[in-house]
Amino acid sequence: MKTLHTKLFLMLTFMITALFTTVTNAAVIARYEFNVSGSFAPTTVISGVTASDLLKGAGLAPAYWSSGTIAANSNAISDNLATAVSAGDYLEIQITPSVNKKMTLTSFSYDYAATAGAGINYFANFYGRSSVEGFTVNMAGTAWPKLVNATNTLNVNIPLGAAYADLTGVTSFRIYITDRTFFDGSSHQSRVDNIQVEGLVSDVPEPTALSLALLTATGLLLRRRV
Question: pLDDT tens digit string along 142-183?
Fold first, then answer.
């Protein structure tokens, strides 16, 4: 009889889990391509979450749309990370799961570039940080190589760990930018494009519904014991 009760309990547990947790396959949660002139809105947002427009910290308020990217002039950016953090030299996106939804985020990626002209060597760095870690830890620090009269694009893809599982509140990602080119011309720019977050979205059971299911399971177990 004990074995029967154990099997019944395991079966009911499985049924409740399947009933109240619906997980989608890993997918793009939100993506920003900046293909529309002057637009900072996300290009793709998966069902079950909302995504903010691209936000700009106080230090990067002058950042602007340029040829399908977000650009900031060299002379508007701090030359070291500590100053960039205090000045607010960052771009930010915010992702929020809908009511009764949770998300497990698996990666954060973006393209980065620098445009240099007039024979000037370009030195820029791009750092990913998130609200999950209080914006205090560099998820990735990517140094743009020395450039002369070149326009190129590279990509950084940052895997996210266990701290990004089962999130039910607003999660923010920032890209801090530093630049030590020391050139005042507007033709020298740091650029960011194709910001993307991937992961899973699943349902969160309502407490009343879950309680009812547990009561039902308990009742069935008691009936089997009579």
Answer: 777 665 555 668 899 999 999 999 999 999 999 999 987 766
Nearby residues of 121 by Cβ (< 8 Å), 6 or more positions away:
146, 147, 148, 181
Which pair of tokens denotes residue 82?
């500590």
- DSSP category for residue 8: H
> For residues 63 and 185, what is the distance between their CA atoms, to the nearest angstrom?
14
Over residues 50-75, mean pLDDT: 92
22-204: CATH class: mainly beta
Mean pLDDT of the chain: 82
Domain boundaries, the chain: 1-21+206-226, 22-204
Token digits for 38?
């002057």
Q: Rounded to whole angstroms, how far apart are CA atoms 112 and 109?
A: 10
Would you say residue 224 has pLDDT above 60?
no
pLDDT over 70 at 213, yes or no: no
Q: How far apart are CA 10 and CA 33, in angstroms?
A: 46
Nearest alpha-carbon partner for 19 in 202, 223, 218: 202
Angle between helices 207-225 and 2-20 (to 10 degrees): 160
